[in-house]
From TrEMBL:
Superkingdom of source: Bacteria
One record GO biological process: protein secretion by the type II secretion system
Coiled-coil ranges (or none): none
Keywords on record: Membrane, Methylation, Transmembrane, Transmembrane helix
Topological relation to the membrane, as annotated: Single-pass membrane protein
Localization: Membrane
SUPFAM superfamilies, per database record: Pili subunits
Name assigned to this protein: Type II secretion system protein G
Statement: the UniProt record of this protein carries the keyword Transit peptide: no
Keyword tRNA processing: no
Regions crossing the membrane: 6-28
Length: 140
């Protein structure tokens, strides 16, 4: 009687199935981590823009009109006196087509908004204009 060494077909199928399940879980967690990282970048960008807006306010006495900021996303932002407020006004890390949104309210107020990907973010709020339905906004 010969003794055969090796794995049965059932044992191989079980191992391959377990590896597939584990790979699926790892990939799902990596995608979630990427979303959270891009959201952290968006929040950091808004804080930097907020600082530049405050510098502009200190120089000009009011916040810029909407058209002024919207014209320079992704480029250098210079004021009327030639002061450079940001060397590169940031754009969204995922999609350049989805810029940050600056809304001028009056000479003392504005709203700066970015769409978030991670809906479980504790600082986000519901917004129907964002693809994910979730946004992060800052005000002066």
């Amino acid at each position: 009687m010969k003794i055969r060494k090796g794995f049965t077909l059932i044992e191989l199928l079980v191992v391959v199935s377990l590896i597939g399940i584990l790979a699926t879980l790892v990939i799902a967690n990596m995608n979630s981590a990427r979303e959270r990282a891009r959201d952290a970048q968006r929040k950091s960008d808004l804080r930097n823009i907020q600082t530049a807006l405050r510098l502009y306010y200190n120089d000009e006495g009011n916040y810029p009109l909407k058209a002024v900021v919207d014209a320079v996303w992704g480029t250098t932002w210079t004021g009327t006196g030639g002061s450079v407020y940001m060397n590169l006004l940031p754009i969204d890390p995922l999609s350049p087509a989805q810029d940050y949104v600056y809304t001028y309210i009056d000479f003392d107020n504005y709203i700066l908004k970015a769409c978030l990907e991670n809906k479980s973010d504790d600082k986000g709020v519901v917004d129907g204009t964002c693809p994910s339905g979730y946004k992060y906004e800052v005000k002066p």
